[in-house]
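Interim report, section 4.2 (structural modelling).
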Amino acid sequence: MLTYILRRLGAGVLLLGVVTMVTFVIFYVVPRLAGQTPQQLATMYVGRAPTPAALEATVDRLNLDQPVILQFWEFIKGIFVGAQYEFGGRVVECSAPCFGYSFQNYQEVFPEIMARLPVTASLAIGAGVIWLVGGVAVGVVSAIKKGSLFDRLAMGVALAGVSLPVFFTGLLALAFLVHAWNIFPTPGYTPLIENPWQWAVGMILPWLTLAFLHAAQYARQTRGGMLETMGEDYIRTARAKGLPERTVIFKHGLRPTLTPIVTIFGLDIGLVLGGAVLTESVYSLNGIGRYAVQAIVQSDLPVILGVTLFGAFFVVVCNLVVDILYAWVDPRVRVAR
Amino acid sequence: MTAPGSETTESADPEVVASSGRADTANRSLRQIAWQRFRRDKVAMGGAIVVVLLILMAVLAPLLTRFFGYSPNEFHQELMDPLTGGVLRDPGNPAGGLDPLGGISPQHLLGLEPVNGRDLFSRIVYGAQISLLVAFGATVLCVIIGTILGSLAGYFGGWVDTVISRAMDIFLAFPLLLFAIALAGVIPDGAFGLEGNGLRVALLIFIIGFFNWPYIGRIVRGQTLTLKEREFVEAARSLGASNRHILFRELLPNLVTPILIYSTLLIPTNIIFEASLSFLGVGINPPTPSWGGMLSDSLQFYTTSPHFVIIPGLAIFLTVLAFNLFGDGLRDAFDPRSTD
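Predicted structure of the assembly:
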């Protein structure tokens, strides 16, 4: 088990390295390939109408005219030991982990992300619980009662669900459930410690909206997996030895179906934690994803870079956790590879 | 537990089904069998018909708008309420209140956009052009990259497979939307010899194709793994065929069907991806209409003009649903495990 965990950790670190490199390539190399001069690139890192001197200073500060490999070194160094930028005659400190410094708002990016994490985490965890439980439950019932009215209805709704983008369901909910019919209050974020009831009430629509899309996928997948598993020989054996149907379904049928679902869940929750961009935009929740979207409007590149990196880190970490959980639950995984 | 009329036939007497099936399918190729199955699947046929209509709509956009509506960028501010931006029930008379239908009338089949009063029918029809163009283009790119890398990984195995499979894992684990936003954000308005919306379309195709190819890559790799053990490949190899010959002449023709099926299922994913990017403001530049962009605009007007939410949203929903139904039907029709 220990060697397995160490190996996965190694793979995780490697993946983090790759992700960091890709992020770097997107932000520093691609614009160069697209024909931007260091000065043009520098305009994306400073305010709206910079003076030529300020531009030159930015080029210098970010080493934009230096070879790519040197830039990459500075970039990595910033993450581990922090960085210092000279800006308008004074030195600004970006302490480690330095995910960038927004020269438009005079803010370090990493603390800003951390400040928004509770919003995104509330959204992700609440929605995650709903879609995992709801999706699997509907999938199991559909599989057991295959062909029934429930099954056909549920699968019809699920098919519609995977075809509905979050921003459309969210807008519909706002236009009708909130505005026209007054069923729900206007969604918004209240910190959990401040007022748990308000927190839940304000988040319920964002949760349902985000959960609906994923629940539809999980229901389809659970149903397919259950149908396949329930056709296996060992299910027949379990029934033949007189086990109650409940035990057959939940202990023998559901367990193997759940393992791939848990893997996908780890991936999905990681993606959402790194910024539920669309849901946060529709409901104007000030989470990590919306931070990135607002940064696009202002073309505040360091913020976009920081959020991208942060999101990628979250996916890798969640993957790692799932891998380890997986090995703990399923001994076959430990031995293989 | 199978209800009458359920799609998979589980007859009480499997022998009857098997023998009748054998007699029935004796002289037909897999493709003919599949086509026959597909034609009987009403839901999938419905999806296919909608898909064909959508493509026709996008291709004939200029004709359709000339016939039924107005040009997509023609303003009709005289019909609008200057205060709320909604469509007036009685043009030129703000005291008359807003039209609850958002201006849906024989002149404007799908109503009007808030504030500027552009004709929504024309904007939806032209939006289909962008949506389908980007989705098809991206899917083609996914298929090209996915087929090449997937078949190489499956055929050669070893370290080639390790590298490519790992790359696919990494791609599937990426926060795609964030990376796509970042990429769309850092590219300037003129680059790679393109500018304006030509560049945006090319960029969207490239970004979506570049990030979504592993879906095809995985399928092709899996198929290649099983195919390469088959006798015909061994026969070709024993006749001294080169790897290139085996890959392109022996394996590729057998991969065409699964690739076609899964690319049909990838198109709806790509349509949503494009709409999401346009919704976030990193897709097509206005005033060119795009469905995602219209939904993004509607965020300001959902209180006064709910039709402006519903119409572009329904366009996305119906398109994606039609492609999903069509693709699911194709997959079931070609599935050798499904009985007939």
